[in-house]
Amino acid sequence: MKRVLVVYFSQTGQLARLVRHLVSPLAGAVEVVEEVLRPRTPYPFPWSLLRFFDAMPEAVLLDPPALEPLAVGADEQFDLIVLAYQVWFLSPSGPATAFLKSEAGRRLLRGRPVVTVIGCRNMWLNAQETVKRLIQDAGGTLRDNVVFTDRAPTLATLITTPRWLLTGRRDGFLGLPPAGIAEEDIAGADRFGRALLGALRDGREKGDAPMLGGMGAARVDPRLIFSERAGKRAFGAWSRIIRLGGAPGSLLRLPLVVLFCLYLVAMILAVVPASLLLQRLLRPLLARRLESQKTYFELPSGP
Predict the structure, then answer these.
(1) What single-letter DSSP state applies at residue 206?
(2) What is the pLDDT of residue 206?
(3) How many angstroms separate the CA atoms of 121 and 129, rounded?
(4) Residue 231 in contact with residue 90, Cβ under 8 Å?
(5) Which phi and psi angles does 146 have, rounded to 5°?
(6) 248-256 long-range Cβ contacts below 8 angstroms, 24+ apart
(7) CA 245, CA 262: separation in Å to the nearest integer?
(8) In the chain, what percentage of residues exceed pLDDT 70?
(9) How many CA atoms lie within 13 A of 177 on its CB side?
(10) Residues 131, 115: contact at Cβ < 8 Å?
(11) Residue 44: is it exposed, middle or buried by C-beta count within 10 angstroms (0-12/13-18/19+)?
(12) Structure confidence by residue, pLDDT tens digits, 189-213
């Protein structure tokens, strides 16, 4: 019987439900081992405002939290590894980064095919580039990438997602849709699990071709490519500034976190709408470049 290791950290519970739906067709046909990442200092949910933004520098600079020891042995052998992660500030979540950079995680990944599963608001390109690099550094091979996003309009999610993270409430309000990945998308994730089961039965996890090609596993919205790039630069600069105030929770760091909060609110209110309008006007001129970028970021599984 083939063995599949499923690794994830889920703060709200949404990613855990998504992953379990996705791998449910494997149950009974292969041995599925679930590894839930556990930070030694748990992250709160809901977050407080300052605690949420204080987590940004370490996420962006890939300075991960300490994890509790993995339940699975670092030298256990698996035919496939499914790594599911959230996106924090356009970077992989702290626990996901901790797994990818840990000695135990690297030993588990070495020589193994990996399928990444992303659950996020809508921007995941830079986070996946980081994860791809860390998988490669560990000696693993990224075979497929599956992405689930909030399908609501971008400007709506800039309200509904923070409300969910800071209050725990994800229901629709004031005419806005519920926050998070649609329930029908979560329920339909098992179609990828059925494809993975077929690939495992045929031994295709040992080859080079993606196992989920042609299934719409990773769809890129070209309108967000330049916005995400600009956001990544801004988060990188602010991360280094905030780190000048010391470790997370430091009193010297608090004023810098507050300044970043004010900057982000101003950017969302003024810069983001203007940027989206400008990109819409320039799209005909950028069409070829955006299509090339879209094709690249949708690899390896494709649209």
Answers:
(1) G
(2) 94
(3) 17
(4) yes
(5) -120, 130
(6) 248/54, 248/55, 248/57, 248/58, 249/54, 253/54, 254/50, 254/54
(7) 17
(8) 99
(9) 15
(10) no
(11) exposed
(12) 999 999 999 999 999 999 999 999 9
Both tokens of 184, joined, read 């029908």
**d(Cα 226, Cα 221) in Å, to the nearest integer?**
11
Which distant-in-sequence residues (6+ apart) come within 8 Å of 96 by Cβ? 9, 37, 83, 85, 86, 131
The label of the residue with tokens 């855990």 reads: 16
**Cα 292 from Cα 286, distance rounded (Å):** 10
Rounded mean pLDDT for each run of 10 residues along the chain, 303 residues in total: 97 97 97 98 95 97 97 97 98 98 98 98 97 98 98 92 96 95 97 98 96 96 87 95 96 96 85 72 82 95 87
Q: Which residues contact 75 (CB under 8 A, 6 or more apart)?
A: 107
- In total, the chain counts a number of residues equal to 303
Query: pTM, whole model, 2 decimals?
Result: 0.95
Tokens standing for residue 293: 């970028």
Which two tokens mark 272?
């983001």
pLDDT tens profile 208-247: 999 999 999 999 998 888 888 888 999 999 999 999 999 9
CB count, 10 Å around CB of 192? 25
Instruction: Report yes or no: 161 and 121 within 8 Å, Cβ to Cβ.
Output: yes
